[in-house]
Amino acid sequence: MKILSYLFLGLAYAQDHYNALATGVLFEGNNTADPAADGVGVFRDYRNHADAVASILLYCAEETGFLPADGKSDNPEAYFDFLQKAASFPAFYFLGTEDKQYTLSLDGDRGQFLDQVREKYRLESTSADLDRIRSSFKALLPRTIDHPAQRSWLLSLVTLEKQVGTDNVTFSMAHVRLTLSRDEKSGVATIDRQEASMTLSYYSVMGRFISFYSDELARYIKKGSVDQLIRTLSSSKGQDDPLMGASEVMAQSTFALL
């Protein structure tokens, strides 16, 4: 496939050691995609581009073996391979010159952690609902830990946006690395006092590219949807967040990488 064989300079992601990962997907805005559109139509029609981007991200996930909903992501490198493949896809334009790197000075309070994450998104002037971002990370943060070895956690959120009144699609990828402790008797998870790290990357989608190469894209990439992306990169397991219903647009998956 010619358009996928071009060489693009991918972004380097630090593959810090971690032994537990929680992943989530959040959709913001208005998905105008036609469910009846065929493979070519998903890519050709700008109104379908939320599903087109979801299809590409699903392709990247399948190619790298990052399939948390299927329990096929026990390889710690799969998550970072997925990020790398998505970042280097030719239809996605990286916004900025580098990933945004932040330090979160945590005092052990969950609310303080969530407020700091929300604040980092605010600094980037994202159009996403910051309260939903906060709630999404609240859902990712485990209440209990199954195994005492699950100390180093990576919380990951993909946010896909298609704003009302436009056909423009953007998405962001964020992950937070932090250390959690487990109560020996109850298994309840607590946040250690620490300097946690957060990485945040934003991408714009080149709609003209996707539309122009719709025939080629449809030949190599299966039609997917936003809902399918959520199901694949997440699972039905939730914590205590109101966004976690089966019909909602955010879900999360937690699994051990021991």
Tell me what the structure shows.
This protein has 8 helices and 8 strands; from the N terminus they run βαααββααββββαααβ. The chain is an alpha+beta fold and 258 residues long. The protein has one domain (17-256): Delta-endotoxin CytB (3-Layer(aba) Sandwich), CATH 3.40.198. It is globular and about 55 Å long.
Biggest beta sheet summary: 8 strands, mixed
What letter string, H or E per element, gives the SSE order? EHHHEEHHEEEEHHHE
Q: What is the terminal-to-terminal distance? A: 37 Å
Number of beta-strand segments: 8
Set out the fold topology.
Elements: E1 20-29, H1 39-44, H2 49-64, H3 76-87, E2 92-94, E3 100-106, H4 110-123, H5 130-140, E4 152-162, E5 169-182, E6 189-191, E7 194-205, H6 207-212, H7 214-220, H8 226-233, E8 251-256
Parallel strand pairs: 1-4
Antiparallel strand pairs: 1-8, 2-7, 3-7, 4-5, 5-6, 5-7
Can you give me a brief rundown of this structure?
The protein is an alpha+beta fold. 31% of the residues lie in helices and 26% in strands. The protein has helices at residues 39-44, 49-64, 76-87, 110-123, 130-140, 207-212, 214-220, 226-233; strands spanning 20-29, 92-94, 100-106, 152-162, 169-182, 189-191, 194-205, 251-256.
